[in-house]
Amino acid sequence: MLKYYAQLERYEGNKALFDMIKMSMVSTIANEPLHIHAEGLRGTGKTTIMRKTQDILPPIVRVKDCIYNCDPAKPHCPVHRGMSAADIADIGIEAIPMPFVEISHSAKVGTVAGSIDLAKLTDTRKPEAGLLPGLIPQAHRGILFVDEINRLADTAPEITDILLDLMGTKPGVVQIEEAGLPVVSVKVNVSVWAASNPDEDPGPVEEIRRQLSDRFDMVCYMGRPTSIDVLARMLKENFHTTKLEPEREQMNLAAIMKKHEEYTETLLRWAEIYRESDLPDFVRNYIARLYVKHNLESIRAIEAMQQGAVLYSIINERDQASINDVTRILPLILQHRMDADSLIRVINDDSKGGSMFSTGGKKAGGKDETAEDAEFFKKEARPLKDLKRKDLINTEKSIDFNRD
Amino acid sequence: METGQSHVNDAASVANYLGLYLGQDQGVRLGDSVVVSTKAHRRMPEKKIKGQVEILVNADAGQTYLNYVDVDQMVHIDVHHMPGNVDAQKVALTIYWAINDYVIEEDPQLQYADDVRFKAIAAYAEKIHITTNLGQGWLFDIMQNEMEPYIEGEEGEDHVHILARLNRQNYALIYIIATAVEDAIQQSGIKLAEVRNITHGKEKKVMDDFGNYIKLPWKKFKGKDAMLMAPDENVNQLVLKLAEKFGGVEDIEEWMQMYSTNIFKRKGADFQKKKWGDIDHYVKQLEEMGLMQKTPLGRVLTKQGLAVQDYVIKHRIELETEIRRNIRRVPGGRTSRFSKIGQSDQDTTDVQLVNYNRTVNKRDNWTGNMAVAQTVVQAKKNALLRGDKRLSIKKEDLHFYDKKSYIPIDICLLLDASGSMAGEKRQAASFLAQHLLLTGKERVAVVTFQERSARVVAPFTRSQRELTKGLQTINPAGMTPLAHGIMTALELIKNSRVRNPLLVLITDGIPNAALWTMDAQADALSAAANIPEQKLRFICIGVESNASFMEKLAQAGEGALYLVDDLNKENLINLVRYEKKNIVKK
Question: In chain A, at which end, N or C, are there fewer CB atoms within 10 A of the end residue's CB?
Fold first, then answer.
């Protein structure tokens, strides 16, 4: 019996991941993607936690039978694009679970982006050439999960390119190309979730595809559980009697489902707040100053800070985002974008100017004092033109050090 | 024109001397106020006596100031003056006209051939870079008033800082430029300053002062930022910093043990230095952070130090992962400087893999992995052209998945473990071995030679544990028995199943322990002569100072020689990666 989301154990090492998926879910519900990436050793529960969120994802409403998940309010797919509200009403609408689509390692460009529809093509009665959207367009308004993204980036650069396009802008773009058919480009609002073990072949994503790693708004490193209580509880969950007698589990099921409903409601409530919320100007300025002061490389990073700070304050039930929220999410946002040393400097807000809040008037005392010494050279020199030829060249040895 | 005549003669005579001194990497004081060399200069801050300038013989001027890759490109001329602002444009113009006069004096005909003369001056002018305390730029740009601002704290504050790309034949211009700059300074109403003395020294590596910005949770911090701190990240980073120096978690644990209160675990500075190189800086930093303190017993870890030690033990697995991650990182940013002599050529074999994202329509043979969907689509298209009634699949419709290939290269590192490799060089070589193992798909072996023998530290392996364990046993000491090393490595390669083996020799010395005869060098050369027989790729990485022997060695082994200025890890990694990348299928 697989566990449910509500049963997942929470501890210090995976808190960051839980925060991240909450933020991303809220953002996705509000129709703004937030791409996240969990890195950690095998067995730390990255994949399990991410997959289990399906239990609590709220449903979405789409135009009936639209495989592109068209929002009835603003249809975007090649079929429903430009239709009037009345036309849409004729087709009807339906609620479906929010898409949670997984890309596997045998994925091909065709299955991921889209390809020629073989069923239509080989139809003996009415053969026609049409496009079959791939997994990504079908994940619109939902989540796309890529397990072991480092391996995918290594073995399938073509699919990585598609991901780069998808994650390059918000909303992202997927282009479906097939010989003999016009190119179709679809806007897709998908949050990409990825998991990887940087310690296994072929190594961390940033070493394989730098751009791909930068596309993720947030990255967290998973820690192993260290508390004995937590581990004991985990063992109990996996005890054979619990596994072999699902009835026992069933007794809890109602309680679990109720909890899931609560989670879902909370997510929807948060998303509603997120739609309305704003970031105070001084926090925005603080973020902008971080960018300038620490020479951050990527604008994506500060965009993610802005998005993340608001989301973080919401999932912690605070009315407004503060600088504190920014500092809390800094490690998530920056650790894959800069080396650890610079990250620590940003987190501790240490740089030559002293604290960010100081006016910068006083200079650090440690400055090289010799540079300031205006009287380093005392004696006036004779110009070259006045010198005799034999005095022109002086070496270290020929200059009498002990003179005057 | 009598003074002018002597001017040219002075310039020529100065040029002769300069050729002599600069060629030996020495600097000179030209007259009283000018210091000339091909190196970087700095004031002597340590000494009480003022007015001394130090020439940093290990810091090339072009590299230091203009980020050049090659050395000895630039002559560095500093004309020192008393406090006052010097207009860069005035300096530029004065130099320009001085060169003009010089060109005419050299060849009076040019007086009447403006365009030729202009061309000659221009050729020099675009090679001269000027910095004064009011601006900087290339001579031509400054003359057109296009200059960059002077940056406070950099070169040029109390002297006019000139970099000129001159070769030896043109050294006479140094005198011309120097006198022109002196003129310009004096015409600005500023007096020239006498450089009291020059000395030659080495630039010390600036040590990373991490004790400054890593903030440990238990240290009291004041102010409102204090609550925003992330304690774990800081401790983590401290450990990673130590790992950079000491190599691994085990090494950090071992090192920290040496500062425990248990006398039996303590080991002296000599032992530490041999294993990890110069560690004084790290001891100081830990002291500054309050993790270590001096006691009558010597230095011991404080309570906080013990807490860090505890953190290391508890989070060993995570820390090791992060360290491996750092080892995988390809050193970027600064470009390695090296010269390559010769070429290592051998046939290669490759491994074929199926590329599932590319299909090909092969006409000649039809073996391989068939792409069904592509085939059906193609058949459908062709059926239309063929006029078939129903879907049929013909040979010409077949699509197959494409193949891609890669060349596996198993690397055997042959490391010099003689006394001179102790400390940082040993660590750099160990780092290289681990980096190669973690970033590649191939196996790595390590053979070392020292005293009078050689040994296999790690056989060809893909296991990081096995490799690190072996690397930890390297303890550089004694002589350099290169011939032993080569023969042991050859034996190892012969007895292992290896693919496209690459033998990488890393040494900073010349062999001085013989194997067969009394002549260590000759033995090494005859050992190397066995390399081509085994169809091995062979590269040597050495330092400039023993270039001539290394060149012979590379020739004997039909390999390539890389000369670097420093056997640091960036250089080593970049070189081996470069070599690997350039092995292509033949």
Answer: C
